Amino acid sequence: xxxxxxxxxxxxxxxxxxxxxxxxxxxxxxxxxxxxxxxxxxxxxxxxxxxxxxxxxxxxxxxxxxxxxxxxxxxxxxxxxxxxxxxxxxxxxxxxxxxxxxxxxx
Length: 106
Description:
This protein is mostly helical. It contains five helices and no strands.
């Protein structure tokens, strides 16, 4: 019993040792880039290819806001969120152009 009590006593040295052990397990989270999420890019492009006007604008804003919200909840800095959203928008634009080209060839 005495050994257990000694182990549970948190001395400054023991606390420093525990902190260094916890530091070992810290890791940086890197979110998978949204512009590389092929299915999401294709889905957004198909939506914008079919839907036009006010509904398209509202839907597009909702998609981008949800994406930003997910990143914010994961602790991603605001500058990186903006970068991710812009990259996603660029990928969707390319996918839209590809859809239009396929449609013209058909």
